User: Which sequence fits this backbone?
């Protein structure tokens, strides 16, 4: 089975609102943040799920270290 890919429009559907899953893209990989408490409702420190947050995570105190704890759901192709 081939890996799922997400365009910008497809990723935007996974914004965590109204019970939908919450996905974010970082450096071309799409991660599921649905079960991460700080991402409840698809929002976290002013950011919204369903987006490419590659430029944002580098400024976060935790950096990319949190990514290893997340499930990968596919690749982001923009």
Assistant:
């Amino acid at each position: 089975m081939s890996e799922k890919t997400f365009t910008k429009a497809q990723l935007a559907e996974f914004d965590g609102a109204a019970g939908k899953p919450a996905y974010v893209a970082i450096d071309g990989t799409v991660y599921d943040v649905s079960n991460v408490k700080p991402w409840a409702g698809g929002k976290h420190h002013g950011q919204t799920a369903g987006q490419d947050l590659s430029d944002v995570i580098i400024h976060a105190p935790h950096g990319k270290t949190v990514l290893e704890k997340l499930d990968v759901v596919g690749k982001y192709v923009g």
